[in-house]
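ARCHIVE RECORD
Type: protein–small molecule complex
Small molecule: NAP
Source of inputs: curated submission
Record status: active
Notes field left blank by submitter.
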Amino acid sequence: MSGTKLAGVIGWPIGHSLSPVLHKFWLEEHEIDGEYVPIALRPEDFSAGVDGLRRAGFTGVNVTTPHKQSAFAFAHAIDNAALRCRAANLLIFAGDGFEARNTDAAGLFESVTEELGTDFVVGEPALILGAGGAARAAILAVDRLGAAEICVFNRTESRARDLAQGIQRTVHAKMRVISPQNLHKTMESAALLVNATSGGMRGRSQLDLDLHALRRDAAVVDLIYNPLQTMLLKNARARGHPCMNGMGMLIHQGADSFDALFGVRPTVTRAVRAKLERVLAS
Ligand code: NAP
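STRUCTURE (tokenized, with ligand):
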């Protein structure tokens, strides 16, 4: 057991996480002597829990709700993406501390280019719904895709304002905050709509969004993967928009994490996606 590489995912609750299935798939595929375990960690136990995992010899852990901001705040070193997102989804243990990293933005960028292509939003406006950590990651990904303008709309407008102001100096695109009054006008011009809210997640309230004003050729991305088809995606598909859910982002951020945790870059295949979809359906 001594050579076994240990890693995992911390969250509260953690039972819903698909990351153990994803990483176990790749551990088996690459015949790596390793374990990836789900770890339930209460918010107030973050520091002590992470320290315990480091001392126990873990190489690192992925981080999910509600620890993404704590991971950023307690880190001894922070990579550029985590710094720009002000949130981390990966901790790599080194010496007496840990480095906080963010692979969500890169994961979304990679999945969008794979599923929707590379040039559909270049020089165009994009609309992002939400103002949490996922919205920050989405802004970085959409900026990298070449959008000229990134419009942020959030249920609580003040959070959208804080987000847009804070992130403006780190992106090329012009950031704009959208009020309910100018949402329809923005939908008419946006080449890409991203749902980075939790509205529509299984067990949560629905996103209240009327698509009738949405530009006919706009692509629609929902970061949610449970359910695989949200009401937003169902309505967008019915109108003929190119669509994708958050499963690709989950897998690609996982591939970057796996590389950092186990030292092997896995290939994102149909087989791994099918495995996760089967688990979700069961
Ligand atoms: P978060 O920090 O808790 O932010 C949640 C956001 O959703 C806030 O902007 C909130 O608005 C908004 N919201 C919640 N319910 C809503 C509703 N019914 N209608 C409109 N807005 C609503 O969460 P997060 O970490 O950013 O995650 C957001 C989503 O991204 C989740 O669905 C998560 O599953 C998904 N995600 C996916 C991946 C992936 O790999 N595919 C990775 C990360 C996150 P207020 O500010 O007004 O409260």
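CURATOR ANNOTATION: The chain has a mean pLDDT of 96.
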